Amino acid sequence: MLFEQVLQQIINGLMLGSIYISVAVAFTLAIGILNFLNFTIPALYMLAGMVGWSLSHYGLPFGLSGPIHWGLALVIGIICAILASLLVERFTYRYFKMKHGDATEHAIPLVSSLGFLLIFEYLILIAHGSDTRGFSTPFTNLDWKTAGFIISIPQLASLILSILIVAALSFLLSRTKVGRALRAIAENPDAATMMGIDVDRIVPIVFILIGFLCGISASIFAINYHEVSPYMGDHVGTKAIAAMVIGGLGSVWGAIAGGLIVGLSETLSIYFFGASSAQITVWSLLLILVVFKPTGLFGHNAIGKGKF
Amino acid sequence: MSRSILKLSNVSKSFGGVKVLENVSFDVEQGSRHALIGPNGAGKTTLFNVISGIHEPDKGSVFFEEKDLNGVPSRKRIKEGLSRSFQNIRLMPHLSVLENVMLGQHSRVPFIDMIKPLSLASKSAGKDEAIETLNSFGIDLHRGQTVSSLPYGIRKKIEVVRALMAGPRLLMLDEPAAGLNTVETNTLRDFLNEVSSRGITLLLVDHDMPFVNSLCTQVSVMNFGQLIYDGPISELRNDKKVLEAYLGMDEDTELSNA
Amino acid sequence: MSGYLAGVLAILGINIIFAYSIYITAATGQLNLGGAGFQAIGAYACAILSNEIGLPISLTLMFSAILGGAISFLIAFPVLRTKGVYMVLATFAIAEIVAGIILNSSYLGGPTGMIINTYIETEVVLIVAIIVILLSFYMMSTRIGLAMRAVHDDEAVADLMGVNKRAIQVGAFALGGAIAGLSGGLYALYFGFIEAQYFNANISIFVLLYVLIGGTQTAWGPLLGASFFTLIPEALRIGDDWRFFIFGVIIVAMMILRPEGIVTRDALDRVSTRLFPGKSNV
A258: which chain C residues are within 8 Å (Cβ-Cβ)? Predict the structure, then answer.
């Protein structure tokens, strides 16, 4: 019986991990390619969810329309996250690149991204207050009961979707022209410029991907857990950072493994030691890794050691 | 023959399979003015880094005043009496000129002076000495400023002064004259002659052959990580191996002036 | 002193002390994004010492600082092995672990928090703040401060100049932890109630921002940064949500206009030449 319960927890943990995957990939892209710890990611995630909720609940602003279909609302939410991400690119990465040569030398983009985190989070709080909002979709009780286990079908679909997106991304990075340009920038931005790569046109692609991944992940969360809140990004954001570190900074596949490991250790820790133990488990794991094996499971040695 | 202050014996170093230094051995005599020359990439700066402890040699030893420096951490070598400047200027960008120079004194300041405020305890904390040395170089004007805004030539000089502030018995200078104009180079030479007359041994890397020629008496020549000449500078131009190595060298290495 | 003013000044004092704790570490080139954790250690140490043992306030505060310092000294060795982003993440993780331990400990009140049965007046907070400010200025004006700034600028060269970089960094990290503990102790004694949820990631982020926006090059930075971000919202008398929104806008704008902070060496030099022409500034 205990064995089966633990197995059920493992299933739940993997499902929870699927939420973290996309966000962890977003973090790892920013670090791996731009050496930028992008703290706006939790805010972009929250923005997509809250915009989606607001559209499906109230409709377009200024009474332009009635409530919008939840699917369309989420798509618009994702687009908003992408636009917000591009705004961040404009005022953090690109600006400092122009001014200081190498933006990654300073903590400036990091500090700016903390500023944007506050801006987005409190804009939403000002607009909608701090309540958790219900997000209704038709998928309420689609559980697949098999061999005594309960697997939520939307969750399973989400896990598969996350992995497919990351696989596509991995393909993009390794096989396409854009991917090669991105990897060249990751190696050495100055050399990439000399090789004729238009860094100013390629870098926004990273931010578009970041916005897209955050938006997708927020939509998956809203569909599976039927709620959104202005604080939804904080929880997922910190867990995704942990997932990124565990997988190794800059490693896309590592982020998948990391996301699942974090989800697993979270649910198992809650199951065995109670609700508030997850925090200690996940962060101790991260701390030990950062100190003793900073490359994580699949990471690259040189990433993230640059001086602030 | 006088005593050697620095003795390199069979020093080898490679990075990722590339041999940067191969069995380099030579002595620097006490009180001498010794130049280390060679084309770019010959391994001169790596040799400096090995001597100052940034890299451990793969093989061989560095002896300073007959003491084996193997295992002495880079931080403690300045206390042994060995200080250096850098090829690409490495001054602290957020410190003023005076603070940069006073940092050079760090290794010989007793702890009690470490916890005195710099602006009050001027004499005991070595501030007067720092100002004096800066003045003798003609750089009193800029001492309140942070160094990043200063012209190249002045920053170059400040680096030499900083290295000197440690009170070294061996001063290692990595291309001190690079980028200086003729007047500045002459000031530097006079200054280094003065330093040398105080009994401080000089070991310097430079590409400016007239400068090296007028300052140094001994020279070691390196090429592809190997020592190809070691002896008095006056006989350098007669050495066949050196002439071969320099044939077809880039034009800014003006051996013809030697 | 009106109650409102006293309250604002007490928060200002605590924030300034807290900012100096992060500044001391940042001055050696290390970013500590776990300030809340060290503050929480001091606050809970203070709560237990005054509730269970009933030590006098001065001793209680001293022990908060010592405990904060001792724990961060022990943590410094593994944490300072890490560099750059990893150090930011490691310190962040420490704060989360501390909060997690408090939440799980019934002895520390868990999620319900703790009530402290002694309290202090605003004056005590302000006196401690002034002492911390003066000591920080003093330290940064000595050769130790010079060595710290040298390590900040170029670790490798500072090492070759004979600066014991590791001792400087560990010392700064431990001292920062002690000062953070002190600020936590003052917080606990002034407000009389502490809970784990207060010492969250946002607190760590804010205090780091005070320091980075104020500027890490001189000891003026944290004083100005903390004062600016504590007093401006009070002066504007706006709601909490708008306050943090504007905080965010200011941060983004500051990074564009003065990325090295409000107070830089060059700015100080210009001011001092204007005020005392002819006098050389060290």
Answer: none
Q: Is C74 on the interface with A (CB under 8 A)?
A: no
Question: Given a cut of 50, is residue C145 above it in pLDDT?
Answer: yes
**For chain B, where are the alpha helices, taking DSSP H only?**
44-52, 74-80, 97-103, 111-114, 127-136, 152-164, 182-197, 209-215, 240-246
Q: Are chains B and A in contact at 3+ CB pairs closer than 8 Å?
A: no
Could you tell me the two tokens for B19? Answer: 């041999």
- For the stretch A85-135, pLDDT in tens is 999 998 877 666 655 544 344 577 888 898 999 999 999 998 888 888 887
Strands (E) across chain C are located at 114-115, 193-194
pLDDT band of residue C94 (cuts 50, 70, 90) is: very high
Total number of residues shown for chain B: 258
Q: Which pLDDT belongs to residue C167?
A: 94
- Subunit partners of chain C (3 or more CB pairs within 8 A): A, B
Residues 183-242 (A) with a CB less than 8 A from some CB of C: 234, 238, 241-242
Q: Which of B83, B96, B103, B173 to mutate to test the interface with C (most CBs of C within 10 A)?
A: B103
Shortest CA gap C266–chain A (Å): 17
- Scanning A72-111 for CB atoms below 8 A from C yields 91-92, 95-96, 99-100, 106-108, 110-111
What's CA B82's distance to the chain center, in Å? 9
| B109: chain C residues, CB-CB within 8 Å | 143
DSSP string, A12-44: HHHHHHHHHHHHHHHHHHHHHHH----TTHHHH
CA–CA separation, A213 and B121 (whole Å)? 59
**Is C31's Cβ below 8 Å from some Cβ in A?**
yes
Distances, alpha carbon B222 to alpha carbons B24, B42, B205, C195, in Å: 9, 6, 11, 67
Please indicate whether, in this complex, the C-beta atoms of C147 and B103 are within 8 angstroms of each other: yes
Q: Which two tokens stand for residue C15?
A: 């924030």
The predicted pLDDT at position A1 comes to: 62
B61: helix, strand or coil? strand
Assigned token pair, C263? 């107070």
Which string of b and e fits C184-208 if b means at least 16 CB within 10 Å? bbbbbbbbeebbbebbebbbbbbbb
CATH code assigned to B1-79+205-258: 3.40.50.300
At residue A172, the pLDDT reads 86
Residue A185, pLDDT above cutoff 60 = yes
* Token pair listed for B21: 């230094």
**Distance from C-alpha of A84 to C-alpha of A116, rounded to nearest angstrom:** 9
Convert the pLDDT of each residue in A266-278 to its tens digit.
888 888 887 778 8
Block residue for tokens 């750089």:
B139
Which of C86, C250, C259 faces A290 most closely, judged by CB atoms?
C86
Q: CA separation (Å) from C81 to A281, B31, C172? A: 22, 41, 15
In this structure, the number of other CB atoms found within 10 A of the CB of residue C249 comes to: 15
Secondary structure in 3-state letters for B124-181: CCCHHHHHHHHHHCCCCCCCCCEHHHCCHHHHHHHHHHHHHCCCCCEEEEECCCCCCC
**Which one of A137-146, A172-181, B51-60 scores highest in mean pLDDT?**
B51-60
